[in-house]
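Field reference: sequence -> structure
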Amino acid sequence: QVQLVESGGGLVQAGGSLRLSCTASGRIFSDYAMGWFRQAPGKVRQFVAAISRSGTSTKYTDSVKGRFTISRDNAKNTVYLQMNSLKPEDTAVYYCAAERVSTGVVVISDRVYDYWGQGTQVTVSS
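Structure field:
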């Protein structure tokens, strides 16, 4: 079993930055592909970014490319989402997710992930 705890959310003005963290416990972190998803009021949960076990491969949804960066530090059991140039449409609850995999695959489907954090609120004001 894996437990995930997100932190780093908050209220920022448009154009600002936030860095989200997700720390895992319970299993070997380096065996898991990790991802970030978000859900805004009235919208379905949306893929944001994902990273492979070693951190060498990443994927992003088009709307955040060039602005967000996903990274991980396996020694700290932590995955990060650096969010720059934030826009009001980025406002959402952000969730991290973990899936144990046998290869360096990047997982972008929320249906695949087995473990989820509680979420952290990101609000971008205009």
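Note: The mean pLDDT is 96.
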